[in-house]
Amino acid sequence: MYNGELDPKIVGEVIAEFRRKKGISQEVMSGLAGIGRTHLSAIERGERKPTLETLYKLSCALDTKMSAVVKEIEKRIDTE
Q1: Domain that holds residue 17
Q2: What stretches in the chain show pLDDT beneath 70?
Q3: What residue stretches are annotated with the HTH cro/C1-type domain (predicted)?
Q4: Rounded to an integer, what distance in angstroms lies between the CA atom of residue 32 and that of residue 60?
Q5: Is residue 41 situated within a structural domain?
Q6: What does the pLDDT read at residue 3?
């Protein structure tokens, strides 16, 4: 059941899994997205929540629709 809060760990896990499936490093992905590698690392560890703009940039770097990333996040939220 949705409690109104977005768990940053789930967001980070999903982004990291998409990145690994594409076979790219954090260094490459952060460069493609135009964000710092340490920022990406913090997002993947669940220490920071990406803004909508950053999530869009990450999705573009992954050559994936942002909606696909959001759907996977929602799916994981629903199973918790």
Answers
A1: 8-74
A2: 1-3
A3: 15-69
A4: 8
A5: yes
A6: 67
